[in-house]
Amino acid sequence: MSRISNAFKNGKAFIAFLTGGDPGLDKSAEFILELERAGTDIIEIGIPFSDPVAEGPVIEAANIRALKNNVTVRDIFALVKKVRETSEVPLVLLTYLNPVYFFGYEEFFAECKSVGVDGIIIPDLPFEESREVGDVADKYGVDLVSLIAPTSNERIEMIARNAKGFLYLVSSLGVTGVRKKIKTDVESVVNAVKKVSDVPVAVGFGISNAEQASELARYSDGVIVGSAIVEIIAKHGENAAAHLCSFVKEIKAVM
């Protein structure tokens, strides 16, 4: 069983996102290990990119900070390798198609396997065009995680039947960012998936507090928190570890 599958084996999974290299690579490694110690089940690492089209202002700013630190794709692989020295927490890269294409599919996913990456999320890769990337990812044992939106309608079953790792259910239309209310009918989308697939469904985009996490965990297999975590890092910088720990424990307590 893969590390990602194991993360959903004992109940609802909490998935945390941070941008690699914000505020620095050594701190990213520290924060990842702190997130794991606090109870995070899967950790997404964002590869800094200059045009992160799915991201709102918070994560976009984190990308800019990391790029100003000259963080590259190879640096993110080195970060994963460093984390793997002491941790088996499932690690999923979040990136866009351009960096993967530029790096070269074979070389990129071979490096993923070498350092211990478990999965990858590529928000600007349409499912219908994902085969050439997915085939190479499969070759190297990396799960290409698909996204579904509330507007996916008839595409939900098609995507669910072919899902790897887990399905990322986008809870709100638009870009990432903290939202006061999640208005999507998550339960009906999850039910549509479960009719055709046993793949876990995790909900993300906009979840920022324990109340939201508790509500969405009733219907899904896990919740994903990104912008709220990146905000903590932006606010506290190199001293964010203890604040991240407290935040994660609060979320986990209600899931």
Please provide a written account of the structure:
The protein is of the alpha/beta class and 255 residues long. It has helices spanning 3-7, 25-37, 57-68, 73-84, 97-103, 105-115, 131-139, 155-161, 186-194, 210-217, 227-236, 241-254; strands at residues 13-19, 42-46, 91-94, 119-121, 143-145, 147-148, 167-170, 201-204, 222-225. The chain has a 9-stranded parallel β-sheet with strand order 5-4-3-2-1-9-8-7-6. The longest helix has 14 residues, at 241-254. Mean pLDDT is 92; it is low at 173-180.
Give the gist of this structure.
The protein is of the alpha/beta class.
Sketch the major β-sheet: 9 strands, parallel
Residue-averaged pLDDT, rounded? Answer: 92
Shape: globular
Strand content: 5-15%
Number of helices: 12
Low-confidence stretches: 173-180
How many β strands by DSSP? Answer: 9
Strand order of the largest sheet: 5-4-3-2-1-9-8-7-6
Structural class: alpha/beta
Taking all Cα atoms into account, the compactness measure Rg is: 17 Å
| Secondary-structure element pattern, one letter each | HEHEHHEHHEHEEHEHEHEHH
What's the N-to-C terminus distance?
Answer: 23 Å
